[in-house]
């Protein structure tokens, strides 16, 4: 098991981030869905239990077109689908990702605490027990200066170039983490379990690297979309989520029908 805590500093408030994150998730879902693949939202509804209450989502990620053809041909049924359950009790959130083929041998858990007026300096924002603290590696993510893959670079999603007309924020330059106002940090504890003899450590390390890249790309987009989400309410977000679910379902259905004919 590999445990890393990613600390993503953002140039916004914690309340703003709640809307911004959900907006960015919707936009990312649109980008990833097409040709019968992508994100399928099964549930998106309020929940309440003895520990917390918030919004529960259950999604299926259809990945067939995202992997090489030889893998698609060899992979057993269920191997190319990921199942995501998320409990969003903001400012605390938990996401669990599993796979139908791997079952209990694969689990990716992300637990996040969103902290206002923070620049990543809190040592244990998630109240991790001592035994996990000893295994945890802390990784600071700088969305403006950390390197990203060339295929992920887009000029209009570059925080070092973006300036928000609505808020006056940006571009994010040099030592922005220590100077930007407002600020908040997403403290993300990521635990990876991949039980497969001989390749476990290699795959777990690979997945952690992928998670770092995803967090970096996502939060670059979130900042550069400031003028799109700034001023939206939670009601606006829920309406957008409902419309997007309908559109994505239609897109997948049309693509599947086209394949059959």
TrEMBL record:
Single Gene Ontology MF annotation: phosphatidylcholine transporter activity
Database matches in InterPro entries: PI_transfer (IPR001666), PI_transfer_N (IPR055261), START-like_dom_sf (IPR023393)
GO cellular component: cell periphery; cytoplasm
Lineage top rank: taxon: Eukaryota
Phosphatidylinositol transfer protein N-terminal domain: residues covered: 1-245
PANTHER family: PHOSPHATIDYLINOSITOL TRANSFER PROTEIN, VIBRATOR, ISOFORM B
Protein name: Phosphatidylinositol transfer protein N-terminal domain-containing protein
Organism: Glomus cerebriforme
């Amino acid at each position: 098991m590999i445990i890393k805590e990613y600390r993503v500093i953002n140039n916004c408030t914690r309340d703003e981030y709640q809307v911004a994150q959900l907006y960015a998730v919707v936009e990312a879902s649109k980008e990833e869905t097409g040709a019968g693949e992508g994100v399928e939202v099964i549930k998106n509804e309020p929940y309440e239990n003895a520990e917390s209450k918030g919004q529960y989502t259950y999604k299926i990620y259809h990945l067939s077109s995202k992997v090489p053809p030889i893998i698609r041909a060899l992979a057993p049924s269920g191997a190319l689908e990921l199942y995501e359950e998320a409990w969003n009790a903001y400012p605390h959130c938990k996401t669990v990702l599993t796979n139908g083929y791997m079952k209990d041998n694969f689990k990716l858990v992300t637990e996040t605490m969103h902290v206002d007026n923070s620049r990543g300096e809190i040592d244990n924002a998630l109240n991790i027990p001592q035994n996990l603290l000893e295994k945890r590696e802390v990784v600071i993510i700088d969305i403006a200066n950390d390197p990203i893959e060339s295929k992920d670079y887009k000029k209009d999603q570059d925080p070092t170039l973006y300036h928000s007309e609505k808020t006056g924020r940006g571009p994010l330059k040099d030592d922005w983490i220590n100077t930007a106002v407002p600020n908040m940090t997403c403290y993300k504890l990521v635990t990876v379990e991949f039980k497969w003899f001989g390749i476990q450590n290699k795959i777990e390390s690979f997945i952690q690297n992928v998670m770092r890249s995803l967090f970096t790309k996502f939060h670059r987009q979130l900042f550069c979309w400031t003028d799109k989400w700034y001023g939206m309410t939670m009601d606006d977000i829920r309406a957008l989520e409902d419309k997007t679910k309908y559109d994505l379902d239609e897109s997948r259905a049309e693509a599947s029908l086209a394949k059959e004919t």
